[in-house]
Design goal:
This protein is α/β, with parallel strands linked by helices. 33% of the residues lie in helices and 17% in strands. It has a 7-stranded parallel beta sheet with strand order 3-2-1-6-7-8-9. The chain has a two-stranded antiparallel sheet with strand order 4-5.
């Protein structure tokens, strides 16, 4: 008798700072991770590459079509897999609606994981905004990793039935907590040679105006 995999988690790729988060997720819930990108997104630094960890996962083959990555194999994996829940991040132009459609056809819950806190204004996003808004409003649950994302969704009238808020837990901070959970402040101040009375400003994010 084959083992039943309870969850399918679909996202573009696994960066170094998400490994511990995914391992913890997989330890608590039986999950298959499917990655559909070659990590050549404009915002990603190539020298960091992609990563893996102690969790079941596959990097699926595909090709880039303008600004989106086409990976037909993930459709087959999701359709043939015997999953109870489908978890999809907001990344990708085709993967979110395709995953949502498969979940609905198989009568399984669909969970949307998002960190978007503003209305994207590219021609593609303006054209397909009704589709994305529909997914937001009809997802069985939405997980956000910050109150700023929650405020954006509420301000955009993305009403939904069940909403879970993962507060103040950016990916990089999750990595720090898991790796240096005993005393992360002491570890970093000693490593960087920072005195106990010195003030430190910590910034997490891309160095772009959109990040504030």
């Amino acid at each position: 008798m084959s083992c039943r995999h309870e969850n399918a988690f679909i996202t573009n790729f696994c960066p170094h700072y998400q490994v511990k988060t995914y391992e913890t997720f997989a330890r608590d819930m039986e999950t298959d991770f499917f990655f559909f990108s070659a990590s050549d997104e404009w915002y990603w630094q190539r020298e960091h590459g992609v990563n893996s960890g102690d969790f079941r996962h596959e990097y699926l083959p595909g090709w880039r079509l303008e600004y989106s990555f086409c990976t037909p194999a993930f459709i087959t994996k999701l359709w043939q897999g015997n999953y109870d829940v489908y978890v999809k991040c907001i990344n990708g132009r085709f993967a979110p609606p395709v995953t949502y459609l498969i979940a609905r056809l198989k009568n399984r819950p669909f969970i949307l994981w998002t960190g978007i806190w503003m209305r994207l204004q590219t021609p593609f996003h303006r054209l397909f905004y009704p589709v994305i808004r529909y997914i937001y409003r009809h997802a069985d649950a939405i997980v956000v990793y910050g109150e700023h994302v929650e405020r954006f969704l509420e301000g955009g009238r993305c009403t939904f039935g069940t909403h879970f808020l993962l507060q103040h837990m950016p990916w990089i901070m999750a990595h720090i907590i898991f790796k240096y959970r005993k005393n992360p402040k002491t570890f970093f101040t000693k490593k960087l040679g920072i005195g106990p009375e010195e003030k430190v400003i910590l910034y997490l994010g891309r160095l772009e105006p959109v990040k504030g």
